[in-house]
Batch of 3 targets.
Target 1
Amino acid sequence: MTGGELLALYPEGTRSPDGRLYRGRPGAAALALITGAPLIPFGITGTDRVQPLGSTRLRRHPVRIRFGPPVAVPPGHERRPDGFPTTAALRETTRRLMDRIADLSGQDVADLPAPRKPSAQDKG
């Protein structure tokens, strides 16, 4: 990317198994804090019914996407000695982003990490 382009990330790291909004991971916040790029929150609902976790088939169901105004990333956030954002800065930025996504999507919030699909190793 050279500038002015968009990159879409899903901060939960997976699809919601039940339509609730789960705790965000810090990747989007890290990119924004390192580059100074704004975070543009968007809420998507209905995808849990289009393709539930574990399903290989798509189902017909309405999907709603709502975009919000950019979340400004403060330029003076805390940094570690190596220049990377501190854990506190990552958590706060991620929390602000997820709060905006919750407002846009109207989803119930589960203050938990998103459940992961069991791997073959887990079953073994």
Target 2
Amino acid sequence: MHAVRTVRAPSMLRLAAASLAGTAIEFYDFFVYGTAAALVLGPLFFPTFSPLAGTLAAFGTFGVGFVARPLGSVLFGHVGDRRGRRPVLVASLLLTGVSTVAVGCVPTYETFGMAAPVLLLVLRFLQGLGLGGEWGGAVLLTTEHAPEGRRGLWASFPQVGPSLGFLLANGVMLALSATLSDAQFAQWGWRVPFWAAGLLAVAGLWLRTSLTESPRFLEIDVHARVPFVDVMRNHWRLVLLTAGAVTVGYAVFYTVTTWSLAYATERLGVSRTVMLGCVMAAVVVKGSLTPLAALLADRFGRRPLCLAGCGATAVWMFPMVALLATGSPLLMFLGFLGALLAFVTMFAVIGAYLPELYEPQVRCTGAAVGYNLGGVLGGALTPLVATALADHSGRVPWGVGAYLTGVAVLSLGCFALLPETRPAVLPALEPASG
């Protein structure tokens, strides 16, 4: 007979708040790099390149973080499935925080030569490695504590974290951009948000030390020996479908929050302050509506919301790029808002949906690998592809709209092939052998 293991049930609000805060801090680290890549990293670290090539190279280092994320999911997923969800949250936050502070200390090409972009690349890889573990640990700890009928709602709190992280990162960038000259911003101002990540990481670690382990994890009697091998052997099709399904969310979000900054400031002559203000306003609305979309998923199902979001994305991408090309702050905001509302219809649901597709023994690895593979396809490639397509377009980057519409159709097909998980109970544990 197996010993019964019990833990004191934490307050769901406290647990969700800690998960949200930690996710916000880690995504702050990740987003502040994306904004810097769009605004200053090209000239500072790739000065021998043409403006277009420098932007592409900066976005290339940005993309390395996404390539590292699936590797982080395998590494931290192994820990989460073998040792517990809680250790993942502490280790991933520490790794991301330290590497982000280090980015702010890297000398530029002018003083360090080719070693500067190489070091930038290594630190960006470490950032991605840590973030690859963060999402799985945060959503699982929240989801596995939550009552069944409100699992979507509570799992949406970590999904609000990226919005808060983005607003915090770009709020700091906006304040610096508005108060410093272009020369001051390029010389030292861009480094300040990276240094601030150290203080945020300390705060996040303090919040997470009080969290209790997931009860679902403590119920597991037989742990997968190598969770990633089990996932690839028994769930490879599910991993590919979930990766393809979430690709559109990444593509849309990073088109709005990263590529559009570079495009509007370089091609349209819109000021950094105006662009950051437009994007941030749309993200505020998106973040505030995340719990509402999750409540709808608890009532009507995960899959219908995801299909609706993909359909809305496919319809809206051409209007979005047309509104962006006007350079009008109000019209650009409306274009971004429509795109992010379609995005949140899907991604508010993902925190509950992906873990529900896997059994507890491999859930941390399976859900996180699928989620972060989608990040490679949608987040890493999109700024590069969009920049190249826009360079061969006229005033309106129709090629970018066509690309995003194609990604939305691909993700729509993947969601259509995935099963519904609500209101089914989380998959039962396999009985212990012997």
Target 3
Amino acid sequence: MTNPLPTKARVAEYAGGVRRRVREGGLGPAPVLLALAVTWVVFQSLNDKFLSPRNLSVLSVDIVGTGMVAVGIVFVLLIGEIDLSVGSLAGLAGAVFAALHVNVGMTEWLAVVVAVVCGTAIGALHGFLFAKFGVPAFVVTLAGLLTWSGLMIYLLGPDSSISFSEDGLVASLTSRYYSAPGFTYGLAALCTAAYLLVSLRDRARRAGAGMPCRARSGIWVRTGLLAAVAFTTVAVLGHFEGLPLALLIFLGFIVASDLLLRRTPYGRQVLALGGGVEAARRAGVDVTRVRVSVFMIAGTLAAVGGLFVASRFTSASQVSGSGMLLINAVAAAVIGGTSLFGGRGSTWSALLGVLIIQSIASGMALLGVETAVQFMITGGVLITAVIFDSLARRTAASRVRT
């Protein structure tokens, strides 16, 4: 007869490991995914339209504008700084595009390029003032918030908005869908296969070098989960209008930025800088270059996000550059798991965080709850995430001292 004590000991050891990872903030995205699942279950139980294909399709497009801005915020947070100008930059990009295309008559694609380049240039300016002159990033970007908001209002003119064609390039960013099953399911299969092949290749390379590597069983489990999510998403959205182009572009940006952070020397320099400026400098990191580049990325993605917000309304207005866009973008990055203290986080945080925020907004709208309650709930979720982040940082610091 088998002695139950070893099993109990293993369970106790596993539970202790989980508690330790909770204290150290080492559970990865699990808490965020759990919070998202709870959010969806609660709203679905209150209104059975919440998880309908139509509402999920609208949700998948609504997250993109804020999510793009949040991805840029993740880069800034990773070096332990903050950018308060991204909301006004997003609004300015929409205003620049609309003013050039509608008022001046510039071709649409060129107006898009100019708007995005403006975001990149402004981000470089913020980074240069911060990195070269030592002006705190908070102050630089706060001044930018005011300056670019004023320029946006000036460009929009007395009507405070500029409408553009519903059939043009920018409008199609949030209005185009792909419904052909061969394409959508093929894309899901291709992404799943690519993840599996890359994971197995990395494992083989690390094992060959004698480095720690993930077990094959773990890779297959993750691949199975990814396949389930991908094919379920395709199936559900296919019951409405299909896969939104906006969602595909957003996921493409997240994957590309994640690869940039995790698999390139530049990404390792960003994470090293977030772990400590002096230590990064002694390790050979060009601190000034990395700081400027991070703000350039944030400015670029803010401009891209602003174009998606404008696309949703087929107009550029002050709504595109409102303070709520900044607040939601920062909240999305932090709620998704990026540390406010730098050195820890992922661009996937932007996706998870903005999903929670927009799910709350969508659920509240279906229930007819006033916006004030939505703000309070989102604020509660944000402060909870910050508390966990602070506790994880304190625990890690105490472990280093001991």
